[in-house]
Amino acid sequence: MFGIIIVIFCSYGEGFVTPSQDENTIVRIIAFLLNCFGVLVYIALLWVTCALCYLVREHSLANARRLALVQQLQGIPFGRLAINIEMTCAICMTNFASEDSVVQLKCDHRHIFHKDCLTPWIETPSIDRPVAQCPLCKKPIIAE
Ligand SMILES: [Zn+2]
Ligand SMILES: [Zn+2]
What we know:
Blueprint: H1 2-17, H2 21-72, E1 76-77, E2 101-104, E3 112-114, H3 115-123
Antiparallel strand pairs: 1-2, 2-3
Helix pairs in contact: 1-2
One zinc ion binds next to strand 3.
């Protein structure tokens, strides 16, 4: 757009000032370069628009993946896991009771959390965890 305006301005000036052949060539080259610059600005704007669309799409896909993951979480009573020692949920810092519904993640058999604690952890995205990840080791949470 800016380039086009310059070209129009230059061609107007041509007729008005009637520059010599050399000046005319220089003006044409400058107009051509400015025109190229205008095209580059267009390409940059197009690229920024595409990048924004991509980010918005990725964000909604990530949210869909989170919700799907929450649906697949299988809560089991802590007492049914073959664990004899006392363990604490790293999210709420409470010791597990044998009847508590817990989720054991695949990253490590000791990475166990209350289902009710892990669900909001997965559902709530944050800048430092764009994908659902284990609160302890930060590995991505894999569905069943
Ligand atoms: Zn908990
Ligand atoms: Zn883990």
